[in-house]
Amino acid sequence: MWQTLYEELKDRSFMVVAVAMDSREGDPLQWIEAARPGYVTLIDRDHRLADLYHMVNVPQAVWIDERGRIVRPPEPAGAYEGFRQMDRVTRSMPDDAARITAEAKATYVNAIRDWVLHGAASEHAFDASQARAHLRVPSDGTVAAHAMFRLGQCLLRHGETEEGDRWLQEASRQHPESWCIWRQHAGVTELGLASQPDFWTRVDALGDKRYYARVDMEGMP
Amino acid sequence: MTTVLTDEGEFTVSEAEASGDALWLSAGDAESATGWVSKAEGLCRGSVCVPLPPGRERQLVRESRLNVAALWRHLGRPVVHSARGHVWVLGPSAQDRAAALRSLEAPDFTLPDPSGRLHSLSDYRGKKVLLVTWASW
């Protein structure tokens, strides 16, 4: 998704660092992504990023300036939850939902371009107080969940599957709003999870709540 | 062998004594795994010192050994360990994480690319960075 933008802007002191929050071994998508030239692709089995930046889902983006300062804190990377209107049998999306999803992505990509070209003068770059106001910070339960997730991953790496899985489940209980953690423990036994009934049950339980938080940017749905 | 996971990394300790919720390390191991040392003014890390809680000194320090799990809880930070006590995670507090984020200094990390080469976010200082997450699911 970021290749075109990266190619266009790479000579403007711009870098994309794409981090796969994925703890399964040898996933083919990692290799496909890695084969693309140019930007940096990293693998984060222990969900270090989710822990440090308090991220609960993917895809998320953080804008970071030349001095290493956060310009826009974590937010859905142009993602809109049009998929919730998908026909769950045929997996087709109503035209409207597909259009809004595509427009959201384009709006977000245009905003990144504007920031890369104009820096702090871009209307999409937050100043420090705006950035702090948009920041979400973890609770005690969240940091405990990340400690449990890390323990579970360490045990899994050492072949202690049963106890490792138990810690991933406990982490998910401690931090129920994290889709990253939930998917990883659900993913232990299931593949192609987005089409699984458990996923839809969890999505439906959101009711009127968003799956992807709204991005505070003009033109975003 | 006991594995201790902290924000700074992974440490293997050969002479740890794990019993129940306590993790006793030698002064040297405690310092290399956590940075904390026992001094006259209490327990210290760099220039920060925390006095030993009166009446509970022996729960934290005995002879030259330090119960790093009790210290962590005393600091309000999460501690979890495997059932047989061979892997421990000493995590940061929610306040630690929140303070780091509120500084707006992007938290640094080091992760491998698919070929195993390590990259740090700070390697890209001087460029605008779009940090994005994704997953194969």
Write the layout of secondary structure elements.
The complex is a heterodimer of chains A (221) and B (137).
Chain A: H1 3-9, E1 14-20, H2 28-35, E2 40-43, H3 48-53, E3 60-64, E4 70-76, H4 95-118, H5 128-133, H6 140-157, H7 161-174, H8 179-186, H9 197-204
Chain B: E1 2-6, E2 9-13, E3 17-19, E4 22-26, H1 27-34, E5 37-39, E6 42-45, E7 48-50, H2 57-60, E8 61-62, E9 65-67, H3 68-74, E10 79-81, E11 87-90, H4 94-102, E12 110-112, E13 118-120, E14 128-134
Parallel strand pairs in B: 1-11
Antiparallel strand pairs in B: 1-2, 3-4, 4-9, 5-6, 6-7, 8-9, 10-11, 12-13
Summarize the structure.
The complex is a heterodimer of chains A (about 220) and B (about 140). Chain A has about 220 residues and is mainly alpha-helical.
What report would you give on this structure?
The complex is a heterodimer of chains A (221) and B (137). By secondary structure, chain A is mainly alpha-helical. Chain A has a domain at 140-204. Helix content of chain A is 45%, strand content 10%. Chain A contains nine helices and four strands. Chain A has helices at residues 3-9, 28-35, 48-53, 95-118, 128-133, 140-157, 161-174, 179-186, 197-204; strands at residues 14-20, 40-43, 60-64, 70-76. In chain A, strands 1-2 form a two-stranded parallel sheet. In chain A, helix 6 packs antiparallel against helix 7. The longest helix of chain A has 24 residues, at 95-118. The two termini of chain A are 20 Å apart. The model of chain A has no long low-confidence stretch (mean pLDDT 87). The longest helix of chain B has 9 residues, at 94-102. Chain B has a domain at 2-96. In chain B, the strands form four sheets. A four-stranded mixed sheet of chain B has the order 2-1-11-10. Chain B is α+β, with helices and mostly antiparallel strands and 137 residues long. Chain B starts with a strand and ends with a strand. Chain B has helices spanning 27-34, 57-60, 68-74, 94-102, and strands at residues 2-6, 9-13, 17-19, 22-26, 37-39, 42-45, 48-50, 61-62, 65-67, 79-81, 87-90, 110-112, 118-120, 128-134. Classes of the chains: A mainly alpha (221), B alpha+beta (137). The interface between A and B is large, with 81 and 51 residues.
